[in-house]
Specification:
three-stranded antiparallel beta sheet; binds adenosine monophosphate; about 280 residues; alpha/beta; 9 helices; 9 strands
């Protein structure tokens, strides 16, 4: 497995692979790898000749009071996991190489970026779209793999790629969960034992929302009200948002219809966790 640290070397290497007619798959990550990330690797290994994983904690997508400095980083451990999973190349650039002094070019997908997570994390999706577009230009993948866990991220990136006519196929893969239902996340390690226990309430509430719908409740307001009641029973939980939206437009829905997605962002103590569930 190759480990490449500079955009220039990565681009040259990718160009050589493309000239040989190989299919390139890219998995953008911030590292601290878990089974969620590795499920994306599994899909990419199945479908591509060369699998590149980027590991980059992207400063442009963190707000000033967020966890950029403390975000868990362990390239050696991640490299071992990636190698075992079948990754051919890790691209782990420095922040200075990705955003040199006086860097000024950003990508913004208007509208979608301001909803849901965009409300409490202004500038987040501008940072995400910018780094992913840069990664696409550097790695030049034919296919790129993302998790349904970050449903808004996928909607934003899909719109970016479609509207900029970028020649890459995006895949969204199912959420990988712990045995008790909590969505796997690099940020779960911030939770203490008690908070970890309480965090289960998020996926339990999503499941309850789905059950209500299966029983015939189609009013988004009713479903959300019951879910809210459940989550608020956990003493450390504070809801950032809880909404039923269309999975592509992210517009709030009054009634559950095709592409209805329940999205949740909940603080458990100081840790902000996101999760979602497609209803139809
Ligand atoms: P991150 O390192 O958190 O930026 O995530 C990198 C990619 O892994 C994103 O496309 C995420 O949506 C995806 N991912 C993160 N957690 C999970 C999970 N539990 N299941 C599936 N994919 C995930």
């Amino acid at each position: 497995m190759k480990i490449i640290n500079t955009p220039q070397k990565m681009q040259e290497t990718a160009q050589r692979w493309r000239k040989k007619g190989l299919t390139l798959g890219l998995i953008p990550t911030m590292g601290s790898l878990h089974e969620g990330h590795l499920s994306l690797v599994e899909a990419a290994v199945r479908e591509c000749d060369i699998v590149v994983m980027s590991i980059f904690v992207n400063p442009a997508q963190f707000g000033p009071s967020e966890d950029y400095q403390t975000y868990p980083r362990n390239l050696a451990k991640d490299s071992r996991k990636a190698y075992k999973g079948g990754v051919d190349c890790i691209f782990a650039p420095s922040a200075a190489d990705m955003y040199p002094e006086n860097y000024a070019t950003y990508t913004c997908v208007e509208g979608l970026s301001e909803k849901l997570c965009g409300k409490s994390r202004p500038g987040h999706f501008r940072g995400v779209a910018t780094v992913v577009l840069k990664l696409f230009n550097i790695v030049m993948p034919h296919k790129a793999y993302f998790g349904q866990k970050d449903a808004q991220q996928f909607a934003v990136l899909k719109k970016m790629v479609d509207e900029l006519n970028f020649p890459v196929i995006l895949h969204s893969l199912p959420i990988i969960r712990e045995d008790d239902g909590l969505a796997k996340s690099s940020r779960n390690q911030y939770l203490n034992e008690d908070q970890r226990e309480q965090a289960i309430v998020i996926s339990k509430a999503l499941d309850h929302g789905k059950t209500l719908f299966m029983e015939g409740v189609t009013s988004a307001e009713k479903i959300i009200a019951e879910m809210r009641g459940m989550i608020e029973k956990a003493p450390s939980a504070k809801i950032d948002y809880l909404e039923i939206v269309d999975e592509y437009t992210l517009e709030s829905l009054v009634k559950v219809q095709e592409h209805a997605l329940i999205c949740a962002a909940v603080f458990i103590g100081k840790t902000r966790l996101i999760d979602n569930l497609l209803l139809l």
